[in-house]
Amino acid sequence: MKTSVKMGSIVAVAVFLMAAVICGSPAYAADAKVAVINIQKVLVDSEAGKKAKAKVEKRMEELKSSFKKDEEALVSLQKEIEKKSSAWSEEKRKEKAREFQKKRLSLGEKQEDANLEMKKMQEKYLTPIMKKLETVVTEVAKDKGYTVVLPRNGVLYFDKANDITATTTKALNAKMK
User: Fold this and answer.
1) What are the average pLDDT values for consecutive 10-residue runs of the chain, which has 177 residues?
2) Domain residues of the chain, as ranges?
């Protein structure tokens, strides 16, 4: 997903820059109040995240059920070929092999299209949540007096008192109503 790749890159750069600033400037390091947030947990636990996940999962199930018939037909044709090919003429074997390949390619294309649709759908629902989350994190950090907020996955150790995940989730829920 493009959003998670972008977010991962942003997070990595932010962690590096903040570490350089904090470690490189003793005066700033003394004034810095650092918070930690588990962005993935906020997305999963927030009401907007739950709704988005439910919509994506519902569509995924619809797509899976639409593939079921195609997959069953493909398996059935494969079994038919395995059982009867020895009794068929060369022409009949080639015809069935082409039919199998055609159905297999068609199913593969449908699955690729479905994967693309799912990625677009995730982006469609996650992008507004992520934009709102940025503003909420800023508001929570300012309210709590934090000067730096780092993603949980980029921090080896932190005091649990500096974790703003739950507070941010509540604030995001309130903002997205």
Assistant:
1) 55 53 52 92 96 95 90 92 89 92 94 95 95 96 96 92 97 93
2) 2-175
